[in-house]
Amino acid sequence: MLNYLGILASGSGSNMEAIANAISNKEINAQIRVVIYNNPDAKVKERAERLGIPAVLINHRDYKSREDLDRAIIQTLNEYQVNLVIMAGWMRVVTQVLIDAFSDRILNIHPSLLPSFRGTHAIDQALNYGVKIAGCTVHIVSLEVDSGKILEQAAVPVLTSDTVESLQQRIQVQEHIIYPKAIANFLAPVSNT
Ligand code: GRF
After folding, report:
1. How far apart are the C-alpha atoms of 162 and 7, rounded to whole Å?
2. Helix and strand numbers, DSSP H then E, in the chain
3. From CA 95, how far away is CA 68, in angstroms rounded?
4. For 47-74, how does the pLDDT look when each residue is reduced to its tens digit (9 = 90+)?
5. How many whole angstroms from 193 Cα to the centroid of ligand 1?
6. What is the pLDDT, as a whole number, of residue 189?
7. Best of 7, 8, 10, 14 to mutate for ligand 1, by most ligand atoms within 8 A of CB?
8. Alpha helices, DSSP H only, in 51-163?
9. Residues with catalytic roles
10. Fewer beta carbons below 10 Å: N end or C end of the chain?
11. pTM of the model
């Protein structure tokens, strides 16, 4: 069965593009059916259109509650027959409504070695703390922010010269490797035995 992905993104969409490239290269047996974005100016819209992927704006400002936003998202995901939801820089907190609709079928990427530095500004948090190893994590989404079973991680050494921007750039290089890998393995687990 071909897997139908729905991507939720708020920003630039570089992870979305890395996933799309991995699909083109046959590293993931899936099709991106739709990209849902919540910020009208998000760069992900142009990226999706360039790749020929439908991009649908669902602006959270138009909804009274997080639950209403999630209901609108579910409706669009269902219209596009999505069976796996990929959060790629989605900057909204999910509710039980979305979790119930796609139980254990929502993945997220976070720019830290979870369970350290959950929430926003993870890279600032890591630098302020003085950690020597930063990184990124792909995990299954649960109600608690940046929690849920970890599927894949990559470590990135912190340099004394690092700024938030320089560290973020090196973490993103790793994100573009581990997110496609985690999705491929989630859809077709490779046995270790
Ligand atoms: C990534 O760094 C991810 O870890 C975080 O948001 C960023 C999204 O980047 N959750 P992009 O929009 O995929 O370029």
Report:
1. 30
2. 6, 7
3. 10
4. 999 999 999 999 999 999 999 999 999 9
5. 33
6. 75
7. 14
8. 66-79, 96-101, 122-129
9. 110
10. C
11. 0.96
CA distance 180 to 103: 20
Look at ligand 1, atom 6, and give the residue with the nearest C-alpha.
89
Which of 16, 139, 175 most suits a substitution to test ligand 1, by most atoms within 8 Å of the C-beta?
Answer: 175
Q: Give percent of the chain with pLDDT exceeding 90.
A: 95
Q: How is 1-39 classified by DSSP, letter by letter? A: --EEEEEEESS--HHHHHHHHHHHTTSS-EEEEEEEESS
Structure tokens at 113: 């070695």
Q: Which of 17, 97, 104 lies closest to 53 in space, CA to CA?
A: 17
